[in-house]
């Protein structure tokens, strides 16, 4: 196989559906001890998709109900990945107040691309969450 062919193949693999930049695929979400993970939140996104899902990580399990995120995580998440057959509901204010939105299974490298109300977006604004799996 020529070098060009291998190169094209590598590019095709890199662009496989379900993989968005550095974010793990929803099917690959697992915590370190192998238990089921419902979603992962990351504190860093980036104009380049390859650099998203970076920084600190908050893993939440199925049925995680966090009306108040730990203080170092309030209004911090910039990228999220929701595991297969799971759904993450987020709120913009602590105590499940403010605006809310559901994210179905998938990788969301740049939360700022998701509209919150007329002017806002969902980057650095998640203050509470509920995650469930089927
Ligand atoms: C997202 O919202 C933040 C804070 O309101 C703002 O600074 C940023 O420009 C917005 N980004 C986009 C892409 O709208």
Outline of this structure?
This is Syncollin. The chain has one domain (20-133): Sandwich (Gamma-B Crystallin, domain 1). The protein has one helix spanning 3-14; strands at residues 39-44, 54-60, 65-66, 79-93, 97-108, 115-116, 120-121, 128-133.
Description:
The chain is mainly β and 134 residues long. The protein has one domain (20-133): Crystallins (Gamma-B Crystallin, domain 1), CATH 2.60.20.10. It contains one helix and eight strands; from the N terminus they run αββββββββ. It has one helix spanning 3-14; strands at residues 39-44, 54-60, 65-66, 79-93, 97-108, 115-116, 120-121, 128-133. The strands form two sheets. Strands 1, 2, 3, 4, 5 and 8 form a six-stranded antiparallel β-sheet that branches. A hairpin with a 3-residue loop joins strand 6 and strand 7. 31% of the residues are buried. It binds 2-acetamido-2-deoxy-beta-D-glucopyranose (NAG). Residues 1-21 form the signal peptide. Keywords: Cytoplasmic vesicle, Disulfide bond, Exocytosis, Membrane, Signal. Functions in exocytosis in pancreatic acinar cells regulating the fusion of zymogen granules with each other. May have a pore-forming activity on membranes and regulate exocytosis in other exocrine tissues. One of its GO terms (biological process) is exocytosis. This is Syncollin.
